[in-house]
Amino acid sequence: MATEAIQPYPVVHPLRGLKGYFTMMKRDISSVLERDPAARSRLEVFLVYSGLHAIWVHRISHWLWKHDVRFFARWLSQIGRGLTGIEIHPGAIIGPGFFIDHGMGVVIGETAEIGADVTLYHGVTLGGTSLEKGKRHPTLGDRVVVGAGAKILGAITIGEDSRIGANAVVVKSVPPNSVVVGVPGQIVRRSQPHRPTDAPDLDHTSLPDIVGVTLKQLLERVDALEDRVDGHEVQKPHIHAPKGEAWEGQDFTI
């Protein structure tokens, strides 16, 4: 699949001046108020949101990393990890408006690249799959939402406006405006594309059951074909399609 490369976002260098750093912090706080209904005030977000604290520490450690002060960059990132439970390698490139909700257990690898206004939930891993140097972690486009517990592995690209379902395992690139569910992740193209002007798509528990629906339709078709065969003998018992949303217990001898 041909996918246009996502260009890294310029990172504000906090050590060049407090004004730029505070401007960046204000946008980060606004992104939380926009995407988390539990957030009640800017002061609350500033003081108690560990995801923001992890991002702010990362932006300083990333500046150190880019300026070859790499030991101290790693040291600072480990301090942030200890305080927040979120591990972000200082080499990772993170765009503006990034939001980590809850945060605990999030891991972001060295060569990961994250676009603008991306949202991650707790337990997310942006991991590598190679021992080789160079690009080995995912690239996430703008406005991507990654559900709780999801794993995105390897030097793959997640297209903009896509949603990764909770606990999905994604090992291949995803086109823009897609939903990914399951293990390994199955790609579903949106019937109603998400636009940049739309509200953030945070419904990461809306998971279409691709395999279940397919099996149900196949079983329904088998039942219908058997009913249409004239003079056929009684067939051996087989699993029948569920009635409504429930499977019949006798189909599974329970």
Give structural attributes:
single chain; 254 residues; alpha/beta; UDP N-Acetylglucosamine Acyltransferase, domain 1; 2 domains; 5-stranded parallel sheet; 15 strands
Mean pLDDT level: 81
State the CATH class of the largest domain: Mainly Beta
Shape: elongated
Total number of beta strands: 15
Strand order of the largest sheet: 3-6-9-12-14-15
The string of secondary-structure elements, in order, is: HHHHEEEEEEEEEEEEEEEH
Q: Would you identify the CATH architecture of the largest domain? A: 3 Solenoid
Estimate what percentage of residues fall within beta strands: 5-15%
Cα-atom Rg, whole angstroms?
23 Å
Name of the CATH superfamily of the largest domain? Hexapeptide repeat proteins
Helix content: 25-40%
Distance N to C terminus? 44 Å
Major beta-sheet overview: 6 strands, mixed
Here the CATH topology of the largest domain equals UDP N-Acetylglucosamine Acyltransferase, domain 1
Structure described in brief:
The chain has 254 residues and is an alpha/beta fold. It has 5 helices and 15 strands. The protein has a 6-stranded mixed β-sheet. Strands 1-4-7-10-13 form a 5-stranded parallel β-sheet.
